[in-house]
Write a structure and sequence with these properties.
Helix content of chain B: under 10%
Radius of gyration of chain A: 14 Å
Strand content of chain B: over 45%
Strand content of chain A: over 45%
Radius of gyration of chain B: 14 Å
Number of helices of chain A: 0
Structural class of chain B: mainly beta
Number of strands of chain A: 11
Oligomer: heterodimer
Largest interface: A-B, 29 and 30 residues
Number of strands of chain B: 11
Number of helices of chain B: 0
Distance between the termini of chain B: 35 Å
Distance between the termini of chain A: 37 Å
Shape of chain B: globular
Order of helices and strands of chain B: EEEEEEEEEEE
Shape of chain A: globular
Amino acid sequence: RKEVEQDPGPFNVPEGATVAFNCTYSNSASQSFFWYRQDCRKEPKLLMSVYSSGNEDGRFTAQLNRASQYISLLIRDSKLSDSATYLCVVNRGTGGYNKLIFGAGTRLAVHP
Amino acid sequence: DGGITQSPKYLFRKEGQNVTLSCEQNLNHDAMYWYRQDPGQGLRLIYYSQIVNDFQKGDIAEGYSVSREKKESFPLTVTSAQKNPTAFYLCASSPKLKGQGYNQPQHFGDGTRLSIL
């Protein structure tokens, strides 16, 4: 079993739709959590950190459930420019340095 | 501008040849990392370094070597022992974390695509 599991998709949604991605992780000692976005043939870029209380950044909302070891990302009012692969990332760093574990990603395709 | 620079963008390796991928950062970050990404897969950690002159193996270190002689530089050599080197290679860096907070993401270079001739 992979340490970070994501539904690979693809999720094909029309513009304006709301879409949710889920992610589970197996290591309960994981320290922090992120969502990264990766465009085709490009490097991953940080989308947002995920906090226990849940956090929102514009159209994006991230949630964390430590008890269930589950992370989610909600995108409202999808835009064509949201088309990308979304990587769920878990940090199980120690000793003052982070060590990120990446999920394989969920692909989103937003169509007109 | 501050950032991470990887070179070359594209690299071709002949059978039996060692090739070196460059990674330079001017963010004054302590830690640097090398990942490999295969199509449809997540990033897998090859090597990481938390401080100059020190580095540790990641999950898939076989067939690779690194050095960390300067804080800003972390080159990766893909040796002839790596039988399946074709992949997208990403270098990343992050600062040393302060206090109890581990909520510090990594910053990535724009990658090197390596293929076999």
